[in-house]
Design a protein that fits this description.
Bound molecules: D-xylitol-5-phosphate, zinc ion
Order of helices and strands: EHEHEHEHEEHEHEHH
Number of helices: 8
Strand content: 15-25%
Shape: globular
Largest sheet: 8 strands, parallel
Distance between the termini: 13 Å
Radius of gyration: 16 Å
Strand order of the largest sheet: 1-8-7-6-5-4-3-2
Structural class: alpha/beta
Helix content: 25-40%
Oligomer: single chain
Length: 224
């Protein structure tokens, strides 16, 4: 079944705890936690001290680090209680070393690709990955429209993972609503991040149920 990760960025921060509970009750699998440093992306959000509070809720936390030099923050996010830690391929440096550190410290290791980044950079990293995150918007802001050209990349990465026998999750982030999420899943995504559309939906459970229904339609063999 597809996993769903509400992006906390779109929550009502006056009542963060209640918002997280609301998403858990609606059937979410993870809490997607967007970390922005105002450098890798032109915006600031929140860091490990806030994650510590978010991790006290009912959902495991999926930390998406949109920061330069992510290696310098791994220990902080591990200690704060993240379950998945995803760094960006474009930050360069010793990606393999940073991904290994994430795993050594007991978390799942993810690598994210911006819309302009080709999947080729994943090739020698596949055995080190528990998750690949395909960005379908330019990172930095919630509430943007999905860039349709990115859909082909999901399919390409699905093929790479399957050929390599990798069990890594294929997460897609940016502009997901019930229609675009279906297109993402059709290309092979098995983990959908949803911010503004999910938190803004009148019926969050209905939104997640509809993603589950699309998944079942697209994967009839799993229902057998
Ligand atoms: C963008 C973030 C996303 C974003 C998703 O930089 O990484 O997780 O919050 O929000 P929506 O679903 O509104 O595009
Ligand atoms: Zn994100």
């Amino acid at each position: 079944m597809v996993k769903v990760g509400p992006s906390l960025l779109a929550a009502d921060f006056r009542v963060m705890g209640a918002e997280i509970e609301r998403m858990a009750a609606a059937g979410a699998d993870y809490l997607h936690f967007d970390v922005m440093d105002g450098n890798f992306v032109p915006n600031l959000s929140f860091g490990a001290d806030i994650l510590k509070w978010a991790a006290k809720g009912p959902l495991p936390v999926d930390a998406h680090l949109m920061v330069e030099h992510p290696d310098t923050y791994i220990e902080d996010f591990v200690r704060a209680g993240a379950k998945i830690i995803t760094i960006h391929a474009e930050t360069g440096g010793h990606l393999h070393r940073t991904l290994s550190l994430i795993r050594e410290r007991g978390c799942l290791a993810g690598l994210a690709l911006n819309p302009a980044t080709t999947p080729e950079c994943l090739r020698y990293l596949l055995p080190s990955l528990d998750l690949v995150l395909v960005m379908t918007v330019n990172p930095g802001f919630g509430g943007q429209k999905m860039i349709p050209e990115c859909l082909d990349k999901i399919a390409e990465i699905r093929g790479m993972l399957d050929r390599a026998g990798s069990k890594a999750m294929l997460e897609v982030d940016g502009g997901a609503n019930t229609q675009t999420a279906r297109e993402m899943m059709r290309r092979g995504a098995d983990f959908i991040v949803a911010g503004s559309a999910l938190f803004g939906a009148e019926d969050a459970k209905g939104f997640i149920d509809s993603l589950h229904a699309s998944w079942r339609e697209l994967h009839p063999q799993e229902n057998a």
